């Protein structure tokens, strides 16, 4: 683990201790949260289009120069209850830096207001809208945490429907099993500077709605890895989600999936958001190469 990662992890832990605990019941009836503003440098380098698909907002950023037909679909995390944050925009910015990729950010309805059922209806509509557009050649779907769950779940849903799949899927610290039933989840809890099982698991479970927690569209770990496009899993070891991510990576390997596992034992949850660390730069560089 680099010194930069160690220092950043301490700062992350301090911030987590100072953040009030989130509970599902307290979120019901809240003013619906708005997404963070697009960083000024990303807005300068890209033309921003705000549209709606199936009644939900979609943000699209096209390079002002050099667009090449490659598209990045980014699905943000936040335990399914938090909006797109500035740190998510940082990840997007670093992924497309120096590429000709156009970015599509579908803003799914958050839990507890929204559920997986309507979330996947929206994502399917947003996907169909994208693939119908002229000049769309290569599509990489990426997401972090809850968004990593959705990126893999979307690939499974498209496979099962016989629809055009993504060319690549990237999951940063994906939330793959909302039951949190793996014994290692509790073992990892004291070492995770960001997440707590007792806080995060009920938030993610609220996303299930009427579906079972083991439904693959809620917990992709219970789905089949066969027939998926290349799936790249980027995971840190100081993360309660690490055991499930590694188990899924093994399933991908058994299925002959050509995607890559990038594992940093000393890194925390969605460590790529700390783009100034060497560990994040290595992972982001790999994904940037896919674009």
Protein described:
The protein has 291 residues and is α/β, with parallel strands linked by helices. It is built from ten helices and eight strands. It has helices at 3-18, 24-27, 40-45, 86-96, 116-132, 146-161, 183-188, 197-206, 242-254, 278-290, and strands at residues 46-53, 56-63, 70-75, 102-106, 138-144, 168-172, 231-238, 261-268. An eight-stranded mixed β-sheet has the order 1-2-4-3-5-6-7-8, sandwiched between helices. Helix 4 (86-96) crosses helix 10. The model has no long low-confidence stretch (mean pLDDT 96).
Quick summary:
With 291 residues, the protein is an alpha/beta fold.
Q: N-to-C terminal Cα separation, in Å?
A: 27 Å
Contiguous uncertain segments of 5+ residues: none
Major β-sheet, in short? 8 strands, mixed
User: Strand arrangement, largest sheet?
Assistant: 1-2-4-3-5-6-7-8
- The secondary-structure class comes to alpha/beta
Shape: globular
- Count the strands? 8
Work out the strand percent: 15-25%
Q: Give the overall average pLDDT.
A: 96
Helical residue percent? 25-40%
Radius of gyration of CA atoms, rounded to a whole number: 18 Å
What labels describe this entry?
291 residues; alpha/beta; 8 strands; 38% helix; globular
Secondary structure elements and pairings:
Elements: H1 3-18, H2 24-27, H3 40-45, E1 46-53, E2 56-63, E3 70-75, H4 86-96, E4 102-106, H5 116-132, E5 138-144, H6 146-161, E6 168-172, H7 183-188, H8 197-206, E7 231-238, H9 242-254, E8 261-268, H10 278-290
Parallel strand pairs: 3-4, 3-5, 5-6, 6-7, 7-8
Antiparallel strand pairs: 1-2, 2-4
Helix pairs in contact: 4-10
């Amino acid at each position: 683990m680099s010194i930069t990662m160690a220092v950043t992890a301490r700062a992350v832990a301090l911030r987590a201790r100072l953040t009030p605990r989130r509970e599902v019941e307290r979120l019901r009836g809240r003013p619906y949260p708005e997404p963070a503003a697009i960083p000024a440098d990303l807005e300068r380098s890209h033309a921003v289009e705000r549209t709606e698909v199936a009644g939900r907002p979609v943000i699209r950023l096209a390079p002002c120069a050099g667009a090449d037909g490659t598209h990045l679909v980014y699905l943000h995390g936040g335990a399914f209850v938090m909006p797109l944050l500035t740190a998510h925009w940082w990840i997007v910015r670093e992924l497309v830096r120096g590429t000709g990729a156009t970015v599509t950010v579908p803003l799914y309805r958050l839990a507890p207001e929204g559920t997986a059922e309507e979330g996947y209806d929206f994502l399917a509509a947003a996907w169909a809208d994208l693939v119908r557009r002229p000049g769309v050649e290569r599509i990489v779907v990426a997401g972090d945490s809850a968004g990593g769950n959705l990126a893999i779940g979307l690939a499974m849903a498209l496979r099962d429907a016989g629809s055009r799949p993504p060319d690549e899927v990237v999951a940063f610290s994906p939330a793959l099993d909302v039951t949190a039933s793996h014994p290692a989840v509790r073992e990892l809890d004291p070492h995770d500077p960001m997440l707590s099982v007792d806080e995060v698991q009920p938030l993610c479970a609220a996303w299930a709605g009427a579906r079972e927690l083991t439904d693959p569209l809620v917990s992709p770990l219970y789905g089949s890895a066969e027939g998926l496009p290349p799936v790249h899993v980027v995971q840190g070891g100081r993360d309660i989600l690490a055991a499930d991510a590694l188990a899924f990576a093994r399933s991908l390997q058994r299925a002959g999936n050509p995607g890559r596992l990038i594992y940093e034992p000393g890194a925390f949850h969605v460590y790529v958001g700390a783009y100034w660390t060497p560990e994040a730069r290595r992972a982001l560089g790999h994904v940037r190469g896919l674009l």
